[in-house]
Specification:
The structure holds two protein chains of two kinds. By secondary structure, chain A is of the alpha/beta class. Chain A has 13 helices and 18 strands. In chain A, strand 12 and strand 13 form a beta hairpin. Chain B has a single domain, classed as Aconitase, domain 4 (Alpha-Beta Barrel). In chain B, strands 4-3-2-1-5-6-7 form a seven-stranded mixed β-sheet, covered by helices on one side. In chain B, helix 5 links the parallel strand 3 and strand 4. In chain B, helix 6 crosses helix 7. The model of chain B has no long low-confidence stretch (mean pLDDT 94). Classes of the chains: A alpha/beta, B alpha/beta. At the A-B interface, strand 1, helix 3, helix 5 and strand 7 of A face helix 5 and helix 7 of B.
Chain lengths: 422, 166
């Protein structure tokens, strides 16, 4: 009998059967979570499932991350969520605590081997901790918090094996975009992706989360990385419960193997309006930048902000450019304050926004660009209208490319930043 | 369950932001208020043109992007009888079944806007009455057929207390 992928191992364990790709199982959930961004809220559908109680209040967590600057409708949603959390004994992370996908790993809510669902497509992020984490809609979430279970098809897995060290100025985000280009927007639909190889083995957790976060942009149900010494070191001060390492078997069966030579990569840019429409930065014609966003659940963790600050240190962004920095969580914000990174960014001309999703989806009522403007962002989506104006253009880049471009006012290769005149 | 109507064709990779833009997520809680904004960013005016009973036809990976259930809810509220595409993004696919919006997986390359289509959702067959071409659907997993038969996921869970795979 062949070995198992990470997805097959976790879904076998959680369904109590020998689960293989293609099987349909009912699996028990370790953790469920929802945010304030999508209506109907799962809690609003709970009664329709025939119950008024969350199956296990300790296993459902709520986040007010999408609307840190609420309008009347989202303020009402916040009140409902706070009231529900209080009544059910469910934990709620408040406005300003940060983005769910960043906070959950950071605050020790996810361990290797866990099965987790969130009512958000980027719930695949937690897979960097060798947990099967995936996104669902509100009705699936309501059924899940009513029963503690969800039906799932055990996905086939694409193995993305990355070799070679990332060159200077090339980040995990560039690697993620290169992979998205190769697999395509639906190349992993209904499947899981495992990221592995020497490049991943030496990659810090921040970069690993950037990779797994982008899995959904290739259609994947989950983005997974086996646990190792990097995982263990990161979890040491965060996870209070016992856990064991989880990796794929060496003889696991993969639907496809994609080889990536990380050492040959240059910075990448995803062009409007598709995440898989990716070019090498050296092939991009001179492109003006009006607004720069360093934020979202993709690449706005402490090391991302530090990388931007390294490039902006002692300089000032170009006239006519707005730089909006949204630390992805309260912990990120505090660490960036203590290290001086935020001071550097503010002195360079940045606006610092409330930790949360703002600067990603137009529903956040935040930093909506004007007609005809170009935005470069460390986000994961550049769909037309994503920032609230269908007549603007969004380019996806790494934090270093975002910072270098803020200095010049046009999309700029961060490997040139020493030569940039402020 | 038989559905017949006029086709409206869209391309590949139609994401949930295109189906209903993020900026309307907090505009109203009633999907019926949002139907006029359906597909607004890629086909302005579609929300006003579409008629109850019409059929939405798309290319591959329909519904990619966010998990927002508003996307299938607004399509359903506009009266669209079925969404037809060669493939659906996973979360949209589950959401549509869960809220009772029929989906039909088949090759759509030969369907044009304005074609008169009919589908037998139970049998998984259809016909393009404008061209005479027969259409065959990829089968749904048994659990999804059970959810559809029960009238959506809420009714399914109320009835069985869990998911019925068999």
């Amino acid at each position: 009998m062949a070995g198992k992928t990470i997805a097959e191992k976790i879904l076998s364990r959680k369904s109590g059967q020998d689960a293989r790709a293609g099987d349909i199982v009912v699996a028990s959930l370790d953790l469920t979570y929802s945010h304030d961004g999508n209506r109907p809220l799962a809690m609003e559908l709970l009664a329709s499932m025939g119950t008024d109680k969350v199956w296990d209040p300790g296993r459902y967590i709520l986040f007010l991350d999408h609307h840190p600057s609420p309008n009347a409708v989202s303020a009402a949603a916040h009140t409902r969520l706070r009231d529900f959390a209080r009544a059910q004994g469910v934990r709620l992370y408040e406005m300003g605590d940060g983005i769910s996908h960043v906070v959950l790993p950071e605050r020790g809510h996810i361990a290797p081997g866990d099965l987790v669902i969130g009512s958000d497509s980027h719930s695949c992020t937690g897979g960097a901790l060798a947990a099967f984490t995936t996104g669902v809609g509100s009705t699936d979430m309501a059924a899940a918090i009513a029963t503690g279970q969800l039906w799932m098809r055990v996905p086939e897995t694409i193995l993305v094996r990355c070799t070679g060290a990332l060159p200077r100025g090339v980040a995990a985000k560039d690697l993620a975009l290169a992979i998205a280009e190769q697999i395509g927007a639906d190349g992993a639909n209904y499947m899981a992706i495992e990221f592995a190889g020497p490049t991943i083995d030496t990659m810090p957790m921040d970069g690993r989360f950037t990779l797994t976060n982008l899995a959904i942009e290739m259609g994947a149900k989950a983005g997974l990385i086996g646990s190792d010494a990097v995982t263990a070191a990161w979890l040491r001060d965060r996870l209070t419960r016992d856990w064991t390492h989880l990796t794929a078997d060496t003889d696991a069966v993969y639907a496809q193997v994609v080889e990536i030579d990380a050492a040959s990569l240059t910075p990448r840019v995803a062009l409007p309006h598709n995440v898989d429409k990716v070019v090498a930065i050296e092939d991009l014609p001179r492109t003006k930048v009006h607004q720069v966003v360093i934020g979202t659940c993709n690449a706005a963790r402490s090391s991302d902000l530090a990388e931007a600050a390294r490039i902006l240190d002692g300089k000032h962004i170009a006239p006519g450019v707005r730089l909006i920095v949204t630390p992805s969580s309260r912990d990120t914000m505090v660490a960036s304050m203590q290290s001086g990174v935020l001071a550097t960014l503010v002195q360079a001309g940045a606006v610092i926004a409330t930790p949360g999703c703002s600067g990603c989806a137009g529903g956040c009522h935040f930093a909506v660009p004007d007609v005809g403007e170009n935005v470069i962002s460390t986000a994961n989506r550049n769909f037309k209208g994503r920032l609230g104006n269908a007549e603007s253009f969004i380019y996806l880049v790494s934090p270093a490319t975002a910072a270098a471009s803020a200095l010049t006012g046009w999309i700029t290769d961060p490997r040139l930043h020493q030569e940039i005149v402020p | 369950m038989n559905i017949a109507g006029r086709a409206h064709c869209f391309g590949d990779d139609i994401n949930t932001d295109y189906i209903i833009a993020s900026k309307y997520k907090t505009a109203s809680l009633d999907p019926r208020d949002l139907t006029r904004h359906l597909m607004e960013d890629i086909d302005p005016g579609f929300g006003q043109r579409v008629r109850p009973g019409d059929i939405l036809v798309a290319g591959k990976n329909f519904g990619c992007g966010s998990s927002r259930e508003g996307a299938p809810l607004v399509i359903k509220a506009a009266g669209i009888g079925v969404v037809v595409a060669p493939s659906f993004a996973r979360i949209f696919f589950r959401n549509a079944i869960n809220i009772g919006l029929p989906v039909f997986i088949c090759d759509t390359a030969a369907i044009s806007t304005g074609d008169d289509l009919e589908f037998d959702l139970e049998a998984g067959t259809g016909r393009n009455r404008s061209t005479g071409a027969l259409i065959e659907a990829a089968p749904l997993p048994r659990v999804m057929i059970n959810i559809v038969r029960d009238g959506g996921l809420a009714a399914h869970i109320r009835r069985h207390g869990t998911f019925q795979l068999g």
